[in-house]
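Need Solute carrier family 25 member 46's 3D structure for a figure. Predict it.
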Amino acid sequence: MHGAPCIMVQLVEDCKSLVKSNSRTLEEISSQEHDALVQKWAGCGLTIVSLLTENLLCHPFIVLRRQCQVHYSSWNYRLEPLSIIPVTIRLLRRQQASSLWKGVGSVLIVRGMTLAVEDVVSKFSPLSKEWTTASVTAFGQHLLLKCLSLAVTCPFYSASLVETVQSDIASERPGIFDVFRDGLCRILVWGSPQQGRMLPVWVLIVPTVVLGLLRYLINILVHKLSYAVITDYQDKQHTRWGAIPKNSDTDSEIEVTAGFTALVVSDVLLPIRICRLHLQGTRTIIDNLDTGYSVLPILTSYRGAVDCYHTIVGEEGRAGLYKGC
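Structure prediction for Solute carrier family 25 member 46:
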């Protein structure tokens, strides 16, 4: 009995010596391996921060921007970033801060559905989720997959859009799964004649797919161009100084910078939005961002995407395409 503690102590000491003999300490790791490990974890951290920023932190700005876009009779287009601050403060005085994150659940659900559709279709067809080769055929198949995912999720995107712009004061807060119910309702009336002002899904699919594909192409082009410019600049800096500077950006940092640049450029080059088409006839009531105190209904009667574009340009001017930017 008295020998048991001694045996345990000896066993622990043996384990420690075994670990020390079969592993290298941090001091034995070369500086290059250490830097590579740090860059790897930094890249993972940047990826996580980027996802959180895109899906959660940016959502209030998406909500405010969409409310500006669908307000067809607004006199303040909110083209300057700081112009939205006073009305947002007035809005928050009357509503909870959570109103800026309304619809975030449905937005994440629609994005998840998009990824799921692409994953399932790519497994049972030659269409690829990723474009990794220079083949024109492979790129065409990749774009076709994007078109299919946009078309399939279009009804649910319409339902999600309603949740992100409707006023919390004048509307009941939707449940987390209401986006499925409302999306399925739009699908069930696919072949039915148009009821009231609401446009059938088949009228919305074509402009949704076309604009989504154009935005994706612009995003890819600008992203690759930005990445090439940044890496080329860094290579020139390395050649000039004869070594890699300590403050040199990692691949993950370059990816984040290129992605942000692509997002901004795509919004500037392609300001066209069809939010009003998706909301037409849904009896949605939004907050009036001209004042921040009142609400108003969405009452439009567009016949389609082309009519929507010409009406906006004719009545609101070309600046009307950039509302909320």
